[in-house]
TrEMBL record:
Molecular-function annotations in GO: DNA-binding transcription factor activity; transcription cis-regulatory region binding
Alphabetical list of InterPro entries matching this protein: LysR_HTH_N, LysR_subst-bd, WH-like_DNA-bd_sf, WH_DNA-bd_sf
TM helices/strands, residue ranges: none
Domain of life: Bacteria
Pfam families: HTH_1, LysR_substrate
Organism per entry: Paenibacillus hemerocallicola
Location of the HTH lysR-type domain: 4-61
Similarity-based family: Belongs to the LysR transcriptional regulatory family.
Keywords: DNA-binding, Transcription, Transcription regulation
Protein's name in the database: LysR family transcriptional regulator
Amino acid sequence: MTPLNNDLLEAFLCVARTKSVSQASEILFLSQPTVTHRIQSLEKELNERLFVNKNRQMTLTDAGQDFLPYAVDILNSWNRGLEKIRNRSEEPEGKLTVSMFYHASMLYGEKVVSFAEKYPMIHLSVKTLTPEDSVEQIVDRKVQLGFVRSIRHPALSYHKMKTGNFVLAVHPNHPLSKRKQIVPGDLNGEKMAFLYNGAADQKIIDQFYQEYGQASEIIMETNNFEVCKHFIMKRLGLAYLPQYTIQAELDEGSIAGIPVTLAKQPPEYDIDLVWLTENANLTLYRLFINHFTGKS
C-alpha cells in the first residue's frame, strides 16, 4: 500500500462532515469530479467502500466510521508538524555571549537557563566576570551583553535590571533588630561581613566602615550573599547587604534589616545590563531583556 495522500484525507473528511460531494467541492475549491475521484482513490487504497449514497446524502459505511478518527488524527498530526517546522524557521537565532558577575549569576542564573531552553536556535555562552572585566570585554567585542554594577562607559548602552537599597542585616534576636536606624557607635565591637565583587563594592564598604564601623571588626568579605545569610542566621555577626539579596528572609522573619543612610555614598546596589551601542543587535538584546522582565 502506498502512503496516503493528505488531499485524499481532506476530501474524505469534508464529505463526511457535509454529507455532500457538491458542498465539499465548494469548500475545497475543487470540481465535483475531482472530489469524487479522490474519494474513489482513497477507497481503492483501503480496499473498502467508505460512503454510500442514501437519500441524496453521502453516508459513511461501517468501514468509513472506523476509519474516520484515524483520518482526523493523521491530518491533525500532519498540520501540527507543518506548524512546528514553520515556527522553527521563524524562531530567533544567532549567537549571544553574556557575562555575569557572581551576585548577578545567583540572582538570574535560572532565568538565563530558561532563556536557553525557550530559544534553542540562539547559541548562548555565559562567562563569569567582574563588572570591570565585563565592560572591558564588551568594548573589545568579546562579550555582547553584560551584567554590571555602578559602572558608566561612554561606548555602552544601559538597561536597569534591579535597584536596591543597602540594609544592615542582623539576626532577629539581636539587640539592634528592633531599631529603625543605626547611628555611629552602634556597631562598636560587632563582627561584620561584607559582600565584595569589585571596585564598586569596595567604595561602599569603605564608606560604610568610615561612617559606622570604625570600632567594628571585619571578619569576612565574600562574593556570595548566601554565605552572608548563614553568617547572620548562625549569629556569627552582622552584614551590610543589598536588601533584595535577603528579601525572602526579611519577609519570613529569619533576618531583620535596618535601613542605613550614608552621608557620601548613596546606599544603592544597582544591576545594569549593558551592551556596546555601536552595531548593537537590538532585536536579540530586547528579546533577552524581555525574557527577564516577563514581557516575552
